[in-house]
């Protein structure tokens, strides 16, 4: 019997592209693509290493993108010297499979565990995909954690049907925006990035966001360069002034609300509701099956409630999880960081991560 071939590769390796193209339609999404990996390696993860573990046998593939991080650099603690960890790329990750790839999982997990221990990696952590529900691919002994809801609009029967399922308040909001002259359109990246960045940073500042979320221009330019038509900048305008903007990442069956912003003074005009209805129509016209709006830890928080108004029945479980490769090193690091007075988050799987 032909054995599975295991490899760990960079985003520029053709093996990553090959594995991505072989994924099942349910599993193939932008966050597993080598293009997204290249964009984030050049920006978010300049000091880390973006890799993918691949299991291959005939036409079967297992694909697992991750970021390999040096824990001494991450924590600033000598106790972490010589240790690394693995974490999913920004977005929804975990393992993705070709149509018949599930049979490779036992061999893949064994090979990944061996590789991780050789790399000094104590654990890995992922945010799983709400539609493919790929938490089922986690290694035996891995931990899956429910963290709230992830709101998804089903576009398979078209934009009109999807919006008809929204709460009546959304349809009223769209009519109000239209009565006030709010218009919407997609803007090419070359003209979009600067006005998008203004709206995005203004919104992050108004919301008191952590420094991590103030992504700079190079991040959005890298996404546009790497993803091409898969990085779509959509705007709502009041006259000729942009007042709401969203960056949508699209691949295969999926389009994702990724990042966005709305001027506070435009909230009453319902510009964002009008913008989202435009994006729904655009994604459906592209043949996408699902528009993933994201979610939150608390179904009762304002942002999650807002997203649920677009898809009252679209709240899917939002799950994260991880696997420990070296239990002794994992527990020893927790104890030593606590002894040293380093701030840890004991209720988090990667308790040492400051972000």
Provide structural commentary.
- With about 350 residues, the protein is of the alpha+beta class.
- The chain has two domains: about 5-140 and about 325-340, Aminopeptidase, CATH 3.40.630; about 150-315, Aminopeptidase.
- The protein is built from eleven helices and 13 strands.
- It has helices at about 15-20, 35-40, 70-75, 105-120, 160-165, 170-180, 190-205, 215-225, 270-285, 300-310, 325-340, and strands spanning about 5-10, 50-55, 60-70, 85, 95, 120-125, 145-155, 180-185, 230-240, 240-250, 255-260, 290-295, 315-325.
- Strands 1, 2, 3, 4, 5, 6, 7, 8, 9, 10, 11, 12 and 13 form a 13-stranded mixed sheet that branches.
- A hairpin with a 2-residue loop joins β10 (about 240-250) and β11.
- The longest helix has 18 residues, at about 190-205.
- The N and C termini lie far apart (about 45 Å).
- The mean pLDDT is about 95.
What is the CATH class of the largest domain? Alpha Beta
Termini separation comes to 45 Å
> How many E-type strands?
13
**CATH topology title of the largest domain:** Aminopeptidase
CATH-scheme architecture of the largest domain? 3-Layer(aba) Sandwich
Query: Count of helical segments?
Result: 11
CATH-defined superfamily of the largest domain: Gcn5-related N-acetyltransferase (GNAT)
Chart the SSEs and their pairings:
Blueprint: E1 5-9, H1 14-21, H2 34-41, E2 49-57, E3 60-70, H3 71-75, E4 84-87, E5 96-97, H4 105-118, E6 121-127, E7 143-154, H5 159-164, H6 168-179, E8 182-187, H7 189-206, H8 217-227, E9 231-238, E10 241-251, E11 254-262, H9 271-285, E12 290-296, H10 302-310, E13 315-324, H11 327-340
